[in-house]
Structure formats: structure tokens, C-alpha cells
Design brief:
Radius of gyration: 17 Å
Strand content: 15-25%
Oligomer: single chain
Number of strands: 7
Distance between the termini: 30 Å
Length: about 180
Amino acid sequence: MPTVLAASWGKGDPKKDEISVVFLDEFGRMREHIQIDNLNDVQNEDTFKDLVRRRKPDCVVVGGYEMNTTKLRGRIREVLNPSLQKDDEGNVEMGTWGQEEVDPAFQIPVIYGYDQVAKIYQHSKRAAAEFPELSVLGRFCVGIARYTQSPLNEFAALGSDCTAVLVDESAKMLVRVNHI
């Protein structure tokens, strides 16, 4: 399985919400968890970069509760590769790399994670038992990281928290999860 660094800003309010970051190794075990106020301060950027450099994740997965998740993904991409090109509105253009040389440790994909399973997991008894020291947002990060590593395992691990998995007939690859 890939090693995954998962990040979430929760609701994405920069005045209230911290960014939670979790690293899972190739066996799905959480190895590190940090919380940072934002990724605009140099000290917080350095903390994030240090984690990426030390852990060398195969990918960074981002999830959240609001549309501000797109801002977090863009900011993470900027931190990992400051030479990324921006469009006229300040958004990072996908797939464009600047002329500066980028640290190879930072040449990793930053993707959005499917978070419906993580939203169920974060409030489950299993999550509370496995990670009593983590906040609900930290457990959410564990959920999106585990789903990124193995979607089938995470669906199966929901157990009784998942009452039904419905397959949409018009799009056989889309799955809807119902929970209590």
C-alpha cells in the first residue's frame, strides 16, 4: 500500500480551524500527527516540509467539510513547489511546473480524497478506540488516508456503522454509503 499524508482544514475557517495532518505508513498505521494553525507562516511551512521530507509519502490526500478544501490543496501544492504557475485569479494551474529546480522529496501528487467513509469513521466507536488521543478532525484524516490506501478495506471495516452500500445503476462505479 502507498504511504499517505492526509490533511484537512475541517470547515476551513482560518480564524478558528487548525490544519490537521496525519501520516500513515504502508501498513496503514498512523506514525505521526501534527496540527498547524495555517500554511502561511514560515515556521508552519517549515514544520510541514520537515514532515514531508522525513516521512516521504507517496501522496498527499486532502479532504474537508467545506469548499475551502480547494484552498488547502492549492496552498499545499504551493508549499511543496513554490515555482508552480498561477492563473489570473491566483489559482494554481494544474500540471504546470516552473523553471526552478524542485526538491525531489516534494515531487509528490496532492489529490482530493473521497471522504464519505471518513465522515462515518471519524464518529465511530472504532475510531475512538483506535485513536482516543486524536481530535475528530484527526480521525477524519486517518479515515481519508486509509481509504486512499485501500478503499475496499475501509468499506469492510465500517462494519455495523455502514447499513448499506448502494450501487447507482446509471453509473456502476459510483457508490453511495448509508449509515446510522
